Predict the 3D structure of the following.
Amino acid sequence: METIEVVEDEKGWTVKHRARVLFIDTVEERTFQTALAISHSLFDEGVPTQVVLIRQNN
């Protein structure tokens, strides 16, 4: 199963897949929409995915 990470830190939000940063933004909703779209694309290709939220302690 592939994991799409949505990481919140002091600078905003980042979407990652494996070691690749795919998207960076400061708007939470837009970031989650992007993560879900990536997840749907992978699923359509037959790759099971999960989206995981990671909040960094400030």
In short: The mean pLDDT is 94. The radius of gyration is 11 Å. The chain is about 30% helix and 45% strand. The CA atoms of residues 21 and 55 lie 16 Å apart.
